[in-house]
Structure formats: structure tokens, C-alpha cells
Write a structure and sequence with these properties.
- The chain has a domain of about 120 residues: Aldolase class I (TIM Barrel, Alpha-Beta Barrel), CATH 3.20.20.
- About 45% of the residues are buried.
- It is globular and about 45 Å long.
- The chain has 11 helices and 8 strands.
- The chain is of the alpha/beta class.
- Strand 3, helix 3 and strand 4 form a beta-alpha-beta unit.
- The two termini are about 15 Å apart.
- The protein is about 45% helix and about 15% strand.
- Bound molecules: glyceraldehyde-3-phosphate.
- Glyceraldehyde-3-phosphate binds next to strand 8.
- Its EC number is 5.3.1.1.
- Pathway: Carbohydrate degradation; glycolysis; D-glyceraldehyde 3-phosphate from glycerone phosphate: step 1/1; Carbohydrate biosynthesis; gluconeogenesis.
- One of its GO terms (biological process) is glycerol catabolic process.
Length: about 250
């Protein structure tokens, strides 16, 4: 269960949020071995959050929201994978629809970023999902498979099991319109089947497939009931410690 804070929460607010989350999970007797909880703050919060996780031995994973496809150098404004790895970051979101939509990122760039994340020993969370008009045309499965192929291009069969794929229908992000459990399962299953066709069942089973889009504590169990839905990538609801803890424990219960 990964909480993507997006461009919210400064580093002072981040320390309070992450502590409240860890305490709430402890009070709920959450077992991190059953469901992994990951926080994905903005770059400016990473050091503060990492210090708390390490110092207070909080049972939370740490992720970043984006990364450069390049090695350190003259790339103003970018953050290199090696810098994130040095900070103790374990997961990096690549290809989020907000990056694809507002920053012109295409599958080739997403694949290059995912490869860079793997090269530096971290796990990419590779996002993909269809626009509303694509779903209305009934082309969502083919569209998502195309994004999967393009976004994982060049990643070796050895590295693929380390990848996390997040299916996030764009029309369900931040809109309150959650896909039905059947919608989520349909695409997650199709993605896994594609991985199995291309790389074998063992690789496909090892890849964790998440659903994202208006996930809350009240709907997480139904979504997680899908056989091919292994977890959730949560946006808005991860900004509330109690709500995100409810998602983590709700996912564990399903
Ligand atoms: O990365 C998270 C997704 O974009 C979902 O966001 P949301 O839970 O606010 O709909």
C-alpha cells in the first residue's frame, strides 16, 4: 500500500504525518510482514521522513515521486537515481499520469527512468492507465497493454520481477470516481497475462500489480478482493494518517 502525497505537505508537516501514521498502524497492531506500507513524499521531505523512519525504526517504506533518466550532471532541476538511493529511498514512481499529462512524459522516457531506478537498486512503481474517452470507446485493455509494453521496454527478465506496476485509470484519479472492483481486476489481470505471455508465468506472478484511483478505507477491501490486485497506490487519502492506516489494515484484512 503506497501513499503518494503528490505536491502536498512541507517537510515540517511531513514529520507529523509520518509519525501519526506509524503510531496509528502500531495501535492497530498492523503486521508489516503481511502488508507493506510505503510513503511517497515530495523530494523536499525525503530527508526528514527518512531520518524519522531510520531513527525511530518506523515500519514504513520510503518512495520518491519521480527521478531523472540521467546520471548526475548538468540537468537543472532534476534529481538523480543515485541521490535517491543514497537517501534510503526504496521505491520510485515513474510515469504517473500527472507526469505523462502535464509534463509530456512518454513510454520511452518512463522506461528509461524505470531502468535507471533498477540500476541503482531501487524498485520502480511504473504507472499506466487509460483516459476516459479510451474507456468509453472500450479500448482500455489494449491501451493499457500498449503502455505496459512501452514503459517496460528494455527491462530484462531478471529485473522484471522487481518491478511494481500501478494501474490507474486517469478518470478515477482524484475524482472520487473509483473503478469498480471488476474494472480494476479486468485490467490488472490483462497486464499480468501480458507479462506471462512475454516473460513466463513465474515472472508475471512475481510482479506486484497495484490499483490506484480514489482508493479509501471504505472501498479498499472490495478492490483488493480482485485476484490480480496486489495493492493500492493512494493519493488524496494518504494525506490523512488515520485514513491511510485504515487502507493498510483494510487491505491486510481482505
Ligand atoms: O498516485 C495516486 C493516484 O494518482 C491516485 O490518486 P487519488 O487516490 O487521489 O485518486
Amino acid at each position: 500500500m503506497a501513499g503518494n502525497w503528490k505536491m502536498n505537505v512541507d517537510h515540517v508537516q511531513a514529520t507529523a504525518l509520518v509519525q501519526r501514521l506509524a503510531w496509528t498502524l502500531r495501535d492497530a497492531k498492523h503486521d508489516p510482514a503481511s502488508v507493506e506500507a510505503v510513503v511517497i513524499p515530495p523530494f523536499t521531505d525525503l530527508r526528514s521522513v527518512q531520518t524519522l523512519i531510520e531513527g525511530d525504526k518506523l515500519e514504513l517504506g520510503l518512495g520518491a515521486q519521480d527521478v531523472s533518466a540521467h546520471e548526475p550532471g548538468a540537468r537543472t532541476g532534476e534529481v538523480a537515481a543515485s541521490m535517491l538511493a543514497r537517501l534510503g529511498v526504496q521505491y520510485v514512481v515513474v510515469g504517473h499520469s500527472e507526469r505523462r499529462q502535464y509534463h509530456g512524459e512518454d513510454d520511452a522516457l518512463v522506461a528509461a527512468k524505470a531502468a535507471k531506478v533498477l540500476e541503482h537498486g531501487m524498485t520502480p512503481i511504473v504507472c499506466l492507465g487509460e483516459q476516459l474517452e479510451v474507456r468509453e470507446a472500450g479500448e482500455h485493455v489494449a491501451d493499457c497493454i500498449g503502455q505496459l509494453d512501452g514503459s517496460l521496454a528494455g527491462i530484462s527478465a531478471e529485473d522484471l520481477p522487481k518491478v511494481v506496476v500501478a494501474y490507474e485509470p486517469v478518470w478515477a484519479i482524484g475524482t472520487g470516481k473509483v473503478a469498480t472492483p471488476e474494472d480494476a481486476q479486468e485490467v490488472c489481470a490483462a497486464l499480468r497475462a501480458r507479462l506471462a505471455d512475454a516473460h513466463g508465468a513465474e515472472v508475471a506472478d512475481a510482479v506486484r500489480v497495484l490499483y490506484g484511483g480514489s482508493v479509501k478505507s471504505s472501498n479498499v477491501a472490495a478492490i483488493m478482493a480482485g485476484e490480480d490486485v496486489d495493492g493500492a497506490l493512494v493519493g488524496g487519502a494518504s494525506l490523512d494518517a488515520g485514513e491511510f492506516a485504515g487502507i493498510v489494515t483494510g487491505g491486510a484484512a481482505s
